[in-house]
Amino acid sequence: MTSLRTPLYDLSADLKARFTEFAGWEMPVQYSGIKQEHQAVRTAAGMFDISHMGKFFLRGSGVLAALQTLVPSDLSRLTLGEAQYTVLLNPQAGIIDDLIIYYQGTETDGTERVAVIVNAATTDKDKTWMTEHLPSDIAFEDVSRDRALIAVQGPEAVTQLQRLTTEDLDKVGRFGHLEGTVLGQPAFLARTGYTGEDGFEIMMSPDGGQALWQTLLENGVTPCGLGARDTLRLEAAMALYGQDITDDTTPLEAGLKWLVHLDGAGKFIGRSVLEQQSADGVPRRLVGLQMAGRNIARHDYPVIHEEKTVGTVTSGTLSPSLGYPIALAYVPANLAKVGQSIGVEIRGKTHPAQVVKKPFYKRKAS
C-alpha cells in the first residue's frame, strides 16, 4: 500500500530530509541531523510537520458530557479556550490512546464545539471507538487528511510565531488555544507540544500550512523530524503510545495519576478498575532509568533484579541534552522508588541502572 504524504511533504523533500514510513505516512525522520535538531529546540526554535496526526471536530448538544463517559479526566473543568490532555480507556482501564480535548465554546443555541487531536497510528481505532460510544446526534468531522499541523517548539518559538499573527500569544496559557489568523489565513493555535519546551501547535489549510512552514524556515526556525521529536519527548518523560502506554497499561501504572479525577469525572469506561487500583495499589509502575555506563537500554530489553527478569524497557536513548543513556521501563511497584538499583539486559549481559526522578530534563522557567 502506498504511504500517505502530508501537505508539507514536498517542502521537506526539497530540504533533502530523510523519510521513514510511520503509521501509514511517509514522514521526515531527520533533516540536518537528530542532535542538531534536538539542540535547536532546546536552545532556540524548531518546527515539526505533525500533519499525520488525527484531527476531529465534534459539534452538538452535550459533547463534553458525552466525551466524559470515555475518559477519566474531569472535562467539566474546561472553559472556553482550555484543553485537557487525557486518555481513552477500554473496560479494563487499558489505554486505547492518549489525546487532547480542546473546548471551543458553546453557541447561542447550546451547540458545543470541541476539537480532538489523537495519534496518527490510532486515528482509525479512535474514530471507531468514539463514534460507537458517542450519541448519534453529535456531528463528528474527521479532517485528519485535510489540514496541515505544525508544531513550533523551543524558547524562541512564541517570539517567532508572534511575528506572524495579530493574536496576543502571551495571553494564551499552557494548554490554552484560540481560533485566529496566521499570515492572514485562518488558523487554530494551541499552546501544546511534545518536547518539554514552550511552543504552539498550529492547524491550518494545506496552503496555509505550506506558507507558514516556508516563512518560519526563512526566519531561521530549524526543521525537525521524528527522530528529534522522540529524543525530546523522552527527555521530558512524555509517553509514546504503543510503547510506554498501550491497551494493556492503565494510567495509574503509567504515572498518569494526575489526569485521573475520580472525584469529579463521574461514570466512565474503566472506572471500576482504576478505583480498585487506587485502593489496592498498582502491581507495576513506569519509571525513569539512568544507565550507569554508555550502553543504551532499548525498547523491549529485559529489566533484571537479583538475576531475574522483573520488567521491560519501553523507550530508551542517549540523551542529547544530558549526555548519558536514559530509559522508561515498567518494574514491580516495590522496585519503583527513586534510587533503586536495577539492571538492564543488553545483548546478553546485564548492565547497571538506577531508578531516577522523571522528567529527566525540565526546561528553565522563562
From TrEMBL:
Binding-site residues for substrate, renumbered to this chain: 201
GO terms under cellular component: cytosol; glycine cleavage complex
Signal peptide location: none
Listed GO MF terms: aminomethyltransferase activity; methyltransferase activity; transaminase activity
Catalytic activity: N(6)-[(R)-S(8)-aminomethyldihydrolipoyl]-L-lysyl-[protein] + (6S)-5,6,7,8-tetrahydrofolate = N(6)-[(R)-dihydrolipoyl]-L-lysyl-[protein] + (6R)-5,10-methylene-5,6,7,8-tetrahydrofolate + NH4(+)
EC number: 2.1.2.10
HAMAP family: GcvT
NCBIfam families, alphabetized: gcvT (TIGR00528), PRK00389.1 (NF001567)
UniProtKB keywords: Aminotransferase, Methyltransferase, Transferase
GO BP annotations listed: glycine decarboxylation via glycine cleavage system; methylation
Pfam family, one: GCV_T_C
Function: The glycine cleavage system catalyzes the degradation of glycine.
PANTHER family noted in UniProt: AMINOMETHYLTRANSFERASE, AMINOMETHYLTRANSFERASE, MITOCHONDRIAL
Quaternary data: The glycine cleavage system is composed of four proteins: P, T, L and H.
Name listed for the protein in its UniProt record: Aminomethyltransferase
Domain GCVT N-terminal, first and last residues per copy: 8-263
